[in-house]
């Protein structure tokens, strides 16, 4: 029994580097093979090869199963190869994986960027703390002014209710 092999290379993701004709051929092959990858019952095979003996039909069915299994494996390998090709292409495009880039330089640049970011955030935090203290002092001032206003209002109310004594208003105004 001879092995079934395909001379068609697996399609590359994104069509990188292959001709339109090769791409069309691969697409057509995949569409044609898809219908073969569905299972075929023994009865359908026996019906198709009715002039063969039962032993030959059984042998054909086993061969068919082997071919389908082999095709499944080839398609799976093709998909795996496409994925590997895509990963290699992505790796080649990534400057951090490039052999030309210096990892130490990249680490230093990242470290400096992080230090600058921390310095910036510390400055922002300090500004927020200063504003918070400013708001707190304003709140204390507003509360004190409100308390003074309330005390003045009470004194005025007490002045209105109290009989006119000459010494009390002078003492109250000092307060």
UniProtKB/TrEMBL annotation:
Q: Has keyword Cell division? A: yes
- Annotated source species: Salix dunnii
InterPro entries reported for this sequence? PMF1/Nnf1 (IPR007128)
Which of UniProt's keywords are assigned here? Answer: Cell cycle, Cell division, Centromere, Chromosome, Kinetochore, Mitosis, Nucleus
Record's Gene Ontology CC terms? MIS12/MIND type complex; nucleus
Q: What is this protein called?
A: Uncharacterized protein
Residue ranges, annotated region (Disordered): 1-22
Gene Ontology BP terms: cell division; chromosome segregation
Keyword Cell cycle set for record? yes
Q: Give the chief site where it resides.
A: nucleus
Task: Name where it's found.
Answer: Chromosome, Centromere, Kinetochore; Nucleus
């Amino acid at each position: 029994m001879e092995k079934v092999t395909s001379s068609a290379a697996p399609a590359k993701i994104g069509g990188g580097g292959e001709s339109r004709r090769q791409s069309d051929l691969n697409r057509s092959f995949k569409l044609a093979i898809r219908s073969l990858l569905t299972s075929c019952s023994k009865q359908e095979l026996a019906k198709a090869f009715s002039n063969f003996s039962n032993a030959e039909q059984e042998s054909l069915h086993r061969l068919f199963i082997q071919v389908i299994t082999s095709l499944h494996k080839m398609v799976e390998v093709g998909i795996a190869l496409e994925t590997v090709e895509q990963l290699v292409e992505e790796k080649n495009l990534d400057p951090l994986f490039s052999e030309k880039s210096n990892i130490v330089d990249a680490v230093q640049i990242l470290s400096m960027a992080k230090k600058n970011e921390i310095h910036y955030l510390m400055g922002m935090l300090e500004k927020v703390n200063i504003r918070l203290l400013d708001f707190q002092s304003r709140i204390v001032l507003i509360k004190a002014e409100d308390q003074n206003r309330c005390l003045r209002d009470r004194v005025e109310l007490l002045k209105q209710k109290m009989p006119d004594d000459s010494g009390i208003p002078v003492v109250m105004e000092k307060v």
